[in-house]
Amino acid sequence: MNDQRRSPTVRRRRLGIELRKLRESNEMTAQDVTRSLEWSPGKVTRLEKAQAVKPMVVDTRLLLDLYRVTSDDPRYDELVTLTRQARQRGWWNSYKDVLDDSYVEFEAGAARIHGFQLSVIPGLLQTPEYATSLIRGNLTRDPTEVERLVQLRMRRQELLSDPHPPYFWTIIDASAVMRPFGNVEDQRAQLQRLIDTDHMEHVNIQILPLDAGPHPGLAGSFVVLDFPDEDPSLVYLETQQTSIYLEESEELQRYGMIFQHLSAMALSPDASVAYLKDLAGQLG
C-alpha cells in the first residue's frame, strides 16, 4: 500500500494497541501510568483505545521512557513515527459535518474489504441517483445534508480507482438489486454500475438469489476489514441506532465462516453478472 492510502485512524489504532502491549508487559495498570506521569484520569485509556484524535509525540516519548524502551531500540523510532502518522488529517475531515462514525476512516486504510449486504447495494458501488434515493428514504430531508452525504459517498468510491486499491469482495442479497427506486433509467444505470465491475480485477461481486432460501446473512449486513502491516482486522456492523466494531479473534472467525458460507450459497461472479444483465434487460 502506498503512503497516500495509509489512514491516520488505522495508524492511531495500531499505536494504541502497541502502547497497551508495552504497558502490560511492564505489569502496569492505566492508573499506575497516570500516577507516574501525573496525567489526567482517562488519558492513558484514550490513547490505547485510539480515542485521542491527535496523539502527541511528547506523550509517546514519555510512555516509551516509562516502559523502558530506549532510543536505540527499533521500537522507539517506529512508535514515534506511528504517532506522527496518526496526527495527519484524512480527506474525510472535510465531511465532518455529516460524518458521525469512523467507518470511512477505517475503510480508507483497508487492504481487503469483504462483506455481505442484505438490503442495499454497497456504498462503494452506488450511483449518485441510488445514493440520493437511499438517503432520502432514510428520512433525511434537508437538501444540503442529502447533497453532502451523496458527495461523501462518491468520494469514498475513489478508493476503488486508486493506483493501489483494496481487494473488494461483496455478496449482495438479490432483494437489494431488485428493489425499485427513482425511474427506470436510474435503475438501469445502477445495475450497469455493478455489471461494469466485471472488468475490475480487484472487485468481486456475488448475488445471493432469493431461491437460496434462509441463510445466516438474514441476521444483518456486515463488513470485514483487513489491514496491511499485520494490523488486526475488524468486523463492522451497522444498525439503525449505532455502529458496532468487533475485534476479538472469535468474532472475526465467526464472520469469516459466515462469509464463506454465503459465498458458497451465492451465484458465482460470472453467473452474478449474467443475473444482473438479465435483470437490467427486464426493465425494458
Report on the structure:
This is XRE family transcriptional regulator. InterPro entries: DUF5753. Pfam families: DUF5753 (PF19054), HTH_31 (PF13560). Residues 102-277 form the DUF5753 domain. It comes from Actinomadura harenae. The model has no long low-confidence stretch (mean pLDDT 93). The protein has a six-stranded mixed β-sheet with strand order 3-2-1-4-5-6. It has 284 residues and is of the alpha/beta class. The two termini are 43 Å apart. It has two domains: 3-86, 434 Repressor (Amino-terminal Domain) (Orthogonal Bundle); 94-281, Endonuclease, Chain A, CATH 3.30.870. α1 runs antiparallel to α5 and α7 (128-137) crosses α8 (143-156). The chain has helices at 8-25, 30-37, 43-48, 57-66, 74-86, 103-108, 128-137, 143-156, 174-178, 184-195, 249-265, 269-281, and strands at residues 112-117, 167-173, 203-208, 222-226, 234-238, 243-246. The chain is elongated and about 70 Å long. The chain is built from twelve helices and six strands.
